[in-house]
Amino acid sequence: MSHIVQIQTEVRDPVAVTAACSRLRLPQPLQGKFQLFGTEVAGLGVQLPKWRYPLVCDLSSGQVRFDNFEGRWGEQVHLDNFLQIHAIEKARIEARKKGHTVTEQALADGSIKLTIQVGGAV
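Predicted structure:
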């Protein structure tokens, strides 16, 4: 039986953040305090391509803080791509913990279809 699921991502798992960074060939995330334009925030910092400031993941709240000045200091597509890949990596981690296998299929519209086989059966 097939199910279509739409999720809203919260970023809480440092392993999934690190996996997303590796997959996207980004520098490894760093824990610390980071300067955004007008404020300092703490969390797990991720440097996106050509972004002036990092995005900062507050793992306790699941929120992501960033300042790209409406695209002038960083293209939204990079953030969207990171969040998509993070969600995929988190789903993979959780499925594998339960002994399931995961396959991926890139779709023409840019979305990615994940298929999870319960119990690892093919």
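Summary: Strands lie at 30-35, 40-46, 55-58, 63-65, 101-106, 112-117.
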